[in-house]
Amino acid sequence: MSKIKSDFIFYWDALILLLITYAAIEVPLHLLPAYKPSGVLYILAECILSLCFIIDIYVRYHDPKTSHKSYLKRWSLIDILPAIPFELLLVFGDSGFEIPVILRAFRIVKIFRVASFKPLWEYSSNLNPGIVRLGFFFYYLALGMHWISCGWIKMRMQGMGGSLINEYLNAFYWCTTTVTTIGYGDITPDHSKNIEILYTMAVQFLGAGAYGYTIGNIATLLTNIDVARIRHRERVDRVANFMKSKKMPKKLQERVHHYYNYLWESRQGYDDATILSELPDSFKYEFASLLNREILRKVPMFKGADPNLIREIAVCLKPCIYTPGDAVCTYGEIGDKMYFINKGSVEVMSQDGRDVYATLKDGDFFGELALLLKQPRNATIKAVGYCDLYSLSKESFDLVISNYPDFEQNIQKMASERMNNKS
Ligand code: CMP
What we know:
Layout: H1 3-29, H2 40-61, H3 68-74, H4 76-83, H5 87-92, H6 101-104, H7 118-123, H8 129-156, H9 164-179, H10 194-223, H11 227-245, H12 250-267, H13 272-278, H14 281-291, H15 293-298, H16 307-316, E1 318-322, E2 327-329, E3 337-343, E4 346-349, E5 356-360, E6 365-366, H17 368-373, E7 380-383, E8 387-393, H18 394-403, H19 405-422
Antiparallel strand pairs: 1-8, 2-7, 3-6, 3-8, 4-5, 4-7
Helix pairs in contact: 1-2, 1-8, 2-4, 8-9, 8-10, 11-12, 14-16, 18-19
The structure holds adenosine-3',5'-cyclic-monophosphate.
């Protein structure tokens, strides 16, 4: 993704995060009897909110890092519901018309999006992941306490009068003492009302859970002040200093940084291949089959294949990562590996990059022609977004096909289809 594009996504995400937080604070306020916003400014603010959420659907749908299909499957509902412009009901409805709180609550659904905002993670990648997790947790907890306080006012103080601020402060005070498990007991539920007792009990349970979660997280944070992360940082710093001293182009340095960020996010500093190479043979096969089970499940050719073949391939697969735009194979070069796609997609293109013959995705493989036909690469392969691949070396490939003729036949079939498809 170009610099401008990623900068844009960062600022756009920040704006959407602000709007989501605004909606998450404003919507529950409608439960308060004394909260009656109206007027052109209020309607205008609501319209702007809907408009931004509608534009957000467009931005997410066209985000090069996610495919249209996976966006529609995972996020569409969460993005569409909050974007419905209910405030138009206020404009076209009778005067005095009120939008039911349940409809307004759709606005809050987008809160599930917050943790997925990539730039938030990328920009906090220098922090300990435990701290980032706690940050998100406190964000959700603060909003949750606000909702609980509004619910408490709705249930308890309806018609009791008092200023809006005083009502709210009292409710938030009750909520804080209950959630933090302090429970002074100066504000208590009306014991003649079951609903109030049940509500209080539910909040007490939530409080106990939140308390446990916080303590647990802080304890883990302190015990393993992330050894793996420190090792990873040292590695990144070494490479960064090297690139600086050799005056490498800024663009390349940026790509290397992104590569390491992604490496950390996807592997958390562990290197499967090194761990595997240190294990005795007795564990190796089982370990490798477990480690690589995701890819072995994804590749259709491995479904129902000889279990011995799967075991042998599993130990030979080596994970590798490519960043957006990287050339995995280049037309005309001598191929010494073939690849299986675990996550991401690649484009198969002509030597000059003008024709795209195919886009390959999770579970597909490529680079087999050079190994099979002992010829140079017949196409260039470029990573579309971040790609998690597994490579199989030529030696392992030759060994596997000599022992498993069925596997060879399957690959041959696919290879001739591809050759025909290209001509
Ligand atoms: P190889 O020639 O080793 O390197 C380039 C790879 O691109 C090639 O192996 C195939 O795996 C892949 N490839 C070539 N043409 C097509 C096609 N038409 N559809 C899908 N993949 C292809």
